[in-house]
Amino acid sequence: MTILQPLKIPHLITRKFLSLTQSTTTSLTERRLIGFSAKQMYNIVANVQEYRKFVPWVIDSQIIRMERYNDKSNTEAQLTVGFQSIHESYISKVNSIENKSVEANASQSKLFNLLKNKWIFHPAPKVPIPHHHHLMKQYELLDNQTPDDYPCCYVDFHVEFQFKSLLHAQLSDLFFEKSVKMMVLAFENRAKELYGTPSRPSVKVPIPKKLKF
Predict the structure, then answer these.
(1) Which end of the chain has less neighbouring CB within 10 Å, N or C?
(2) Integer Cα distance of 176 and 27 in angstroms
(3) pTM of the shown model
């Protein structure tokens, strides 16, 4: 996951933790209101095998092992990323709770000391009407549906990483926020490809202070 000059993008939380002996640890958190259900967005994010088809800079993705326990699953996948002179394969350990969250941590990486990201999906039964934010739209469910089927959801995304190389860390500062924005957008576009027109436009929204990753 590569990284453009920090842009002034609203509703992002970006942190850096300095060290005198190693590269900087950088993190970013973003919340979006998306016109697809929590179930639909979860299915896209949890399906790591398909990342090679739409995630920027992922040129291959293969499942090595998968275990399921009721609504939870543990997956190990080999991801290969490529960008300019960087070409790297690593193991991504993915822990998922069905329709609720997906958390991935990289291991056996020559490029990163740390690389982890987490997605959390929140059903949105009531959302602001576009261009009329003082008005709210209430969605109704069919008898066979659950809250995860509401046609909108809030998606929280958090990424945290640290390069092993100081040079790579310095280069990443040039395009970090823009590349993360591109990656989140790729998942939204994948939802449009699979599920059609969204129920509403996607927008960034403020991040709750109590939100923790």
Answers:
(1) C
(2) 10
(3) 0.83
Q: Which residue has the tokens 């929590």?
A: 38
Rounded CA-CA distance 126/153 in Å is: 10
What's the token pair of residue 166? 């100081």
Contact 14, 179 (CB under 8 A): no
CA 202 to CA 196: how far, in whole Å?
A: 14
Please report which helix (H) or strand (E) contains residue 179, including its range: helix 176-195
d(CA 88, CA 91): 10
Q: Which residue has the tokens 């809030």?
A: 154
> How far is 117 from 13, CA to CA, in rounded Å?
14
Note the pLDDT tens digit of each residue in 81-107.
887 777 889 999 999 999 999 999 998
